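Long-time lurker. I teach an intro course on protein structure, and each term I like to show students one example going from raw sequence to a predicted 3D structure in token notation. This year I'd like something fresh instead of my usual example. Would anyone be willing to generate the tokens for the chain below so I can use it in lecture? Attribution to the forum is fine with me.
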Amino acid sequence: MAILFGALLVLPPRLGWRLLTRPFERIAWRLRFSGQDVKLQALPRRLVRGWTDARLSFAASLRDARSSLSSAVGLTIRLGLPLTVLFVAVNTIWGFTWYFNTESWASAFYQKMAELRVDTWRAGMVDGVLSAYGGKIDKLFRVAPPGIDDQDFSFIVIGDPGEGDASQYALIERYLEIGRRDDVKFLIIASDVIYPAGAMADYEKNFHLPFKGFKKPIYAIPGNHDWFDALEGFNANFLEPQAARAALAARADTDLNLTSTGTNRIDRLVDRAQRLRELYGIQNGLQRGPFFEIQTADFALIAIDTGILRTIDDRQRAWLADALARARGKFTMVIPGHPKYAGGTDTSTGDDAFSALFATLENAGVDVVMAGDTHAFEFYVQYKDVAGARPIYHFVNGGGGAYLSIGGALGWPDVLPVETWAFYPGPDAVRAKLDTETPAWKQPVWAWIKRFGAWPVSTETLSGIFDFNHAPFYQSFVEVRVERSRKRVVFALQAANGPVRWQDLHASFKGVAGMAPDAPVEFIVNMKAPGG
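-- Reply from a regular --
Happy to contribute to a lecture. Here you go:
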């Protein structure tokens, strides 16, 4: 119980205490709006009014912090620093997990500092890159890997790889093996390149070393953890040097240059990234922003950065509209920073900005959406209420190295927003792994999950406690094969020891017609007819 209570204390507001207090808060607001609070006794009336006034003030401070550096600093210090100091002090009691670790809790403070500034930073970076290149936004963020214009080709998408430990390294052999094939042209990292805070100091161990030997271009979009250092490590490594310098300088400028990131530091970051690139033989530094597009005559891939709070700024929104227009009539695959569906729920519910983003994608006729962030593989088919409209295939592809998200396997809901779904690893495999490997001091948490489903939080909320680096590994990634010769795109699920088999998938359907249970998992989506 002590561990469970500790976990509740340190969860972000949306995941922890807010889950407990929201029903009471709603009652309080109903009383205020209806005027019924005046009928309460003195003490309850003061509690209701004090609570709702404080919540309104907090919401206003969040709004102010998005546009004011001083407000953001004051808010994050008030919210994040005391909690970080507390858990750094007691870290030696708990030992290492994602929840009870000094570096992880320092990164929680970084998140509070960064999350309110991401859109402002990103917009400034785009302006800085535009100024540096003197070009138009329509082509500035396009990348062009060779060998994809008029033939069959393949590429790899890996989500959330960057722990730099055994759970990440377990996949190396498999994606290097696939990457040696001539038809494989590039690789995309879909989220969280580097844990815990995207720092440049972690790039050698968590990125360059694990991807050494992959000889094709590597592109990436950042995850929330990559933004914790104001995207400095990401920009230095994945942007062209000219774009990286412009973006880093522009970010500092948005913060009124009240930062240690001056010209000398920018030079050191960019030069260090270039040196690592050369020493490890990595082909990255090929894009000009944290978002990008690939356009061919019949296939388009659009990668969207949704930051920490699942938002995009006005610059990226304008670029996205144009990129979707350029993709019209093509088979279109979108890689956003966060998934619409995860853990059997529609994560966009109640989030107007995030819902609007996916409405834009749906209205544009996007065929496939593949996102990381949740550390597992999940698959959903979203059918539209329009006769003859093609469904949208949603993939969660965040199992590339971070701790497993066990919320899907152990807390799958009875009622889902879609009828067709699947996930990996399945519940039996996860239970067997945790029964075998959970150490004595974590057994109370594991027992609580099995008995009470992790109430009053969710199983997914407590996933980070079980960060194991022992076989069997259930991390995964997706190989995408664009088979023009057969007018289809194939999404093949890969794991540490080879292709995942249909029998290993927990799904609402029994594989594909004609496929044996031990056949490799491959999801097939037909390409559009010309002009379709």
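Some talking points for your students: The chain is about 40% helix and 15% strand. The CA atoms of residues 182 and 236 lie 29 Å apart.
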